[in-house]
Amino acid sequence: MEHVHHAHAPRNDYGRFIASIMIFCLLAAAGYALQHTISCFLLSWVIAYLLDPILVSAERRGLKRLYSLGLLYIFLGILTVFFMTFIVPALTISWNSFILDLPIYIQQIKQVAVEWKSRLPDRYGSDEIQWLLDKTAGNVDKTAEKAGSLAYSFGTRIFFNLFNIVLSPILVFFMLYYKQTVIKTLISWLPEDRRAQIIDISNEVNKSIGGYLRGQVMVSIIVALLTTIALFVLGIPHPIFCGAFAGAASVLPFIGVIIATLPALFFAWFKFQTVAILWQTTFAFGIIYFVEGYVIKPLVFKESMNLNPLVTIIMVMALGEMLGFWGILLALPIASAIKITWEHFLLGDFKTR
Fold first, then answer.
1. pLDDT by residue (tens digit) across 191-210?
2. The 3-state secondary structure of 159-199, one letter per residue
3. Any idea where the domains of the chain sit in the sequence?
């Protein structure tokens, strides 16, 4: 029986695929080199993304976008005055208190290490343990210096990012005002035979990303407020600092809950030094994250992204290392966009018809 061998046509898609990977790598390298500029742009983009539904709702009621922007900026100006008058001073006082108390915490750590060393019996490998404690106690001063320099560096970054905060409202205004012009321009660049498909996929991605960003901001604010109130009731030092940290840590999937509790447990132990306060703090965080996971998130995130946990962790680590906080915040939306696009690719929506 004669076998017929079919020649496979060359895949021209390979060249495009390799070119796409190279372009992505170049963009990633450029993004790392221009991370401060991109950070300002991403901050403005996220703010514009969160505010745009308000303008869309106003336009549906017959109000022009320019007038809607004017009213929105007046309202935001009032909120800014309130924030600068009450919230910023409270955060500044909390941060200064933390910086002043940091050497005391370091010395207490050193004292605890010395006490543990004196209680160790001279058996069962205690020499190795004592050597480890000696090294730890000897490096406490260096650790204090490094912690102080890190705190100073963090404060310097905040001061440097004030420029972004000042510039962002201008960028947000133009992003919101020229939104339709930019969209129409981008649509005109799309191939006519695939324009409708790409627009449908873009709308699906936009719905997923918009829901996540708005929901995550709401969740972070609620977690920060609940944590601050709980720690204030328990009498744990620096409740505002711990609350802000818990709100930011809630962006991290899976491990954010654990990371958020560490500063509160640290401050609770060094003020009260009892196991009871540790249990109370842990119980408070358990209630907060139970409410977050089973009450707040189901209400806020009406549609889940259904992302693989391994893919989620890899995306958060990779983009977090490249873009810092913004990479962590945008890792899930980017992963969701890739997932949606890949599903449409598997369905054959990108095949030439």
1. 888 888 888 888 888 888 88
2. HHHHHHHHHHHHHHHHHHHCHHHHHHHHHHHCCCCCHHHHH
3. 18-189, 202-347
